[in-house]
Records
---
Amino acid sequence: MQDTPPSVPDFTQWPSFPFEGDLRVKQLDEPVPVEPPRRGEGHRECTACNAPDEAYIWVGERWRVRAMDRPTGLPMVLILESRSHLDLGDLPNLLAAELGVMTVRLERAIRSLDGVARVHVNRWGDGSAHLHMWFLARPYGRLQLRGTFLSLWDSILPPISEAQWRENLAMVAAWLAEFGGRPLAEPPRIQWQAPSSLTAQSAGEAVEEPEEETVSVIEAADEIPEAEAAEAEAAEAPATGEPANVDTPGKAEEPANAGTPEKAE
């Protein structure tokens, strides 16, 4: 006789819950005796330690800030990382104190953007042993996006324009640079060229560009469980590689001569 699945929790009736219709709760798997190592644990390489500064929108002496590799549904999604290969509970007093300062500073920078009402700060860390804090901007007036499901809505909403996304990244990087460090994100180039013809292109002549799949918070490599990550990599095998010169990639290429991460005293 099979166990009766638990009833659907009350939060499925919240206005912020992004799904509707008939739902059922999955059966809970048996706990494993030993959890698999995360990235940066055991013999697994650390993506953050091997990433060059060019993969980030702002870099400092002890902290770096990176973004996804392309726009997503929210106005801004950023990740704060320590340079040293440490997890949250391993931070020495100096870095622990600076984490609070950097969290407040980055939250203010994102909240200063037009159209941002709140900034959600999250730390999961099941995919990587290297400390990384998530900052998710909630659009102003979108009351249905309030609360704990904002990271899910990031996958559902249509992505913002790349021009607006790059402008937001450059503004946040410049805001942080006022306190030190080096901004690496640049605003989009101005389209100053005059049109070759004053005749508007008709709808029938318009060329439709193929839509690209967006990568959101819950699809980021550092947060995908081991089994799901392997399936995702297998499914994306035929896809072409990402551009080599992107200011704010979600996944940075690993340099051949990457050094060992600095250790905090």
---
Amino acid sequence: MTTAARVWRVFAREVRAARRTRTYLALALVTAVAVFGVAVAGGGPTGGYVPTVIDVLVVVEVLVPAVAFAVGYRALADPISRGELDVLETYPLPAWGYVGGTYAGRAVVLSALVGVPLAALGAYVATTAGPETTVFASHRGIDSPWLYLRFLALTLVYGLVSLSLVLLLSVVAGSRARALVLALAGLLVLTVGGDVAVFAALDGGVVTSGSLGGALAVTPAGAYRGLVFDQVLYVAVPTRSSFVSGWLATGALLCWWVATLVGAAVVATLR
């Protein structure tokens, strides 16, 4: 059996386990209630896709990392505490393969938990918004389902980056109790810590008003937010200019994703 086949078995095990876990169904329902509740309360679905994105963006920015941490905080901490990684040393499956297969399986679960409710919200907008909402805000902006699909794709990418970070924290923790503490700390850092650090640097003069956009773009939440504005909201209103560099934000998310996954594999190998 090849290494790829063994990694696939780890991946398939994670997906099968998720299908038997009712907690994930409850998590999906909570996610759906949250995004639908905020969108309907703000009136976005009757206005169109872009108004809906505006309504749910702040909630999604916090909700997606929370779901990612719920899905992944025990992903490697439990196997480590049970000694599974020690047992793997007697099998021809490297630690990085176990980490990769676990991440891929949990990524499928996270994509379903986040993607299905947001896709359902998009379908609801398609059946709720009137034809006149293709042009909104006194004819200054053009609405389109393609812009919502961009939002959905960027949100899934943000979720996958969040999951790679929580996987790193999980393997560093090595036990369920420490994994929970690190997960909560990581969630706070991911959702608000980056912005707080940037604005503290701005107040201290380390970051200037001219470099503020670039500084925000290198944090995961700031990069995601900047890309949503750049690729979704400002596209609908051509007169607006981007606040952050799209290339910088994309590169930052890619760096966070690669660095955290590689870090998780390295720490798992050293354990």
